[in-house]
Amino acid sequence: MLLTAITLVLLAGGVFFFTVGTIGLLRLPDVYTRMHATAKCDTLGLGLILAGLAIYSGISLNSAKLLMIAAVVWLTNPTATHVIAKAVYDSEPRRQQKGVSGGHD
Amino acid sequence: MASYFVGAAVVLMVPLFACLYRAAIGPLAADRVISINVIGTKTVAIIALVSFGYGETYYLDVAVVYALISFIMTIGVAKYLEYHDIE
């Protein structure tokens, strides 16, 4: 009963953070702020949902798989967001006119 | 309990299609890439929820593979945006 309640609370939190990130993606004015909003989807939304499912399934192979999914997503999604931000920042027309490089290489 | 999992998956479909709207109208190509990235994350969550809702937990392997492929797609498109070439 307690595990069920914890699972439901975590699932509701995950859905809430997914919704918040999506509202940010739709409403914010800039591409960088939209990236900032979608980071909440990746870390908190998916993290809470997978944590809820892992608590529901207890200590088993399924919870190990869920933790593996969480580890993969938490490694790859910030990396992907960083690469997109770098690509956008370097390809802005204003920076290309001044001949300024990104300063990262 | 299974109905809660399927219900959460169905509720997650609403922000997924909202992300698809941003991917359709997004002014920059990077907006579309970010939207598709978030759609991939939501799809991983939906696959995990559906696998528990239907009691067939071998779908979790599909979720792992989907997360990895989504990352490869994002890196490829970002590389094309920056260098205008995928080599």
Any low-confidence stretches of chain B, pLDDT <50, length ≥5? none
Global Rg of chain B? 15 Å
| End-to-end distance of chain B | 48 Å
Number of helices of chain A: 4
Please give the share of residues in helix of chain B: over 70%
Percent in strands of chain A: under 5%
User: Helix and strand succession of chain A?
Assistant: HHHH
Shape of chain B: flat
| Uncertain stretches of 5 or more adjacent residues of chain A | none
User: Strand pairing plus helix content of chain B: what structural class?
Assistant: mainly alpha
Describe it for me?
The complex is a heterodimer of chains A (105) and B (87). Chain A is mostly helical and 105 residues long. Chain A has one domain. Chain A contains four helices and no strands. Chain A is elongated and about 60 Å long. The model of chain A has no long low-confidence stretch (mean pLDDT 86). Chain B has 87 residues and is mainly α. Chain B has three helices and no strands. The termini of chain B are far apart. At the A-B interface, helix 1, helix 2 and helix 3 of A face helix 1, helix 2 and helix 3 of B.
